[in-house]
């Protein structure tokens, strides 16, 4: 499926993944990889990615 033809919910999910990834990277840079906030952001990102894969499989 090309990005231009994604249903709206998948497009929104891709945007949420990008935001979550950027947030996690910023926290990682500021606090290091073992900080609780970074770990929670990573879990949130994983959940979004898993949801995306469930919807596209």
Automatic annotation (TrEMBL):
GO terms for molecular function: protein dimerization activity. Pfam families: SpoOE-like (PF09388). It comes from Hydrogenispora ethanolica. GO terms for biological process: regulation of sporulation. This is Spo0E like sporulation regulatory protein. It comes from the Bacteria. SUPFAM superfamilies: BAS1536-like.
């Amino acid at each position: 499926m090309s990005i231009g033809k994604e249903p709206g919910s998948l497009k929104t999910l891709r945007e949420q993944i990008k935001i979550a990834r950027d947030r996690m990277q910023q926290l990682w840079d500021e606090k290091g990889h073992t900080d609780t906030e970074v770990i929670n952001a990573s879990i949130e990102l994983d959940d979004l990615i898993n949801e995306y894969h469930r919807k596209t499989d």
